[in-house]
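pipeline: protein-struct stage 2 | run 1193 | GT2 family glycosyltransferase
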Amino acid sequence: MTDPRTTVVVITHNRRPELLRTLGHLAALPERPQVVVVDNASTDGTADAVARHHPEVRLLRPGRNLGAVGRNLAVRQIRTPYVAFCDDDSWWAPGSLAGAADLLDAHPALATVTARIVVEPDGTEDPIVGELRDSPVPGPPWLPGPALGSFLAAATVLRAGAFRAAGGFHPRLWLGGEEELLAADLAADGWWLTYADDLTIHHQPSVVRDSTLRRTHGIRNTLWFTWLRRPAGYALRRTLHLARTVPRDTASLRAFAEAAAALPWVLRERRVLPPDVEARLRTLEPAQRDSTARSYTG
C-alpha cells in the first residue's frame, strides 16, 4: 500500500541517534511517504548520517537553527496536498498517514487531523490525549471527530495549501507552543481542526532536550499569542493569571521579559480573532485551568 498524498517533514537538531531511529520507522511504513528532513544546523554529524543511511530522504540544510520555521522551509518545497509533521523522536504508525489523508480528502473544510499519541517505550497514552478526545470546542455535524482549538505539530497531518496560506509557523515564536497562533489563524481563515482517535503516532521523548528553555519559550509564546489575537480585556486577565500561576523562577521571569520587550512588534501585528473563533477558544478555558498535561503555563 503506497500512498502519494502525504509528505512527512521532520526538523532536527543534534539528535542523530533518535532521528535515525525515526527514519527507520518511517521507511518501513506501508504508505512509503516522501520524507523531508530539515537539519537545523546540527554539529553531531546528523546530515552526513542521513545522507549515508537514508539516501531516499530529501535533506535540507538551512545552515542555521530555524526552529519550527524549518517546517515552513520544507512545506514550501513539497508537492503533495498534505504534510505530516513529526519530531526526530516520534514516528507515525502504519496506516495512520493514509487514514488522515482519507479524512482530509473527504472533508474539504478540514485543515488538520491530530492523532493519538502513544509514549514509548511503555506504550502508554500521552496525558494530553484525554484532553483532545474530550475537547469541548463546538464543531459542525460533518466533522469526523472532536473539534480542536489548536493542534500538536508533532502529531498532526495538515492540508499543505491551508498551511501556506496562513503563513506557516511565525519565525518569532521559534519552538514551544508555536502551534497556537497558526491554529487560530487557520480557524480565522474558515478551516476546522479535528482529533482522530483511530490514528496513532509514537513518541519516545529524547533525552537530549532543554526543558527549561522550552518552558521559557512556551510561556513567552502564550503571552504573545494572547496579546496578538485575543480581545484586550481577555488578554489582560490572561496575562495577570499567568503572572500569578507560573513558577516563580528564572525561566518564567525571562519569558515575561522577552514577551514585554516585543510589545512594539505585538502592537504593529495585533489582529483580533473573529467573534466565532474567539467563542470557540473561550470554551477551552475551564479545561486549560484544570489541565495536568500542559507544561508551559504551570
